[in-house]
Amino acid sequence: MADRPQALRRITETNEVRLDVREDIRRGRDPFARIMATVKALAPEQALVLRVPFEPVPLLAVLGKRGFAHWAEQSAPDDWTVWFYREPSAPAEAVAGARATASADGDMVVLDVRGLEPPEPLVQILDRLDSVRPGQRLVVLHERRPMLLYPQLDERGFLHDTEEIEPGLVRIVIHRPAPPS
Question: Domains, the chain, ranges and CATH?
Fold first, then answer.
């Protein structure tokens, strides 16, 4: 295995945030939201040390778009450790979703994720959910019905309606339920 990159060698063990999702994956649970929440909470000088049962190639691309470099070690056929870290020249907060467009009018935010490669549309939508206020609607324009999104929305207490406008254009309206009176 190649030597660790210089930028990674500068990260001390106290700045490593460790997350082991091997058991989640073995039990059929999707760890993506948990991983992304951990990444979102990282300070600029911290690195995510992720334990997985395989090399998470799609995740490498997703986090690469957010300014993270990676380095992986395989210690067994079903045991990988992947470090995600920021290069010293990378901005502390990379601009996520440069290809996604969004506009807002107060009560409605429109997020167009058409043309993004999976899992980037899911990442964009889940990131945007944090800023949806009660009474506000997130309108997502997508190329298809995002089947992996719906359980995530249900789990987080969001209501959603999906409408296929035309082939290749699906509109998903997402909102928080009104608080009980």
Answer: 6-86 (3.40.630), 101-175 (3.30.110.40)
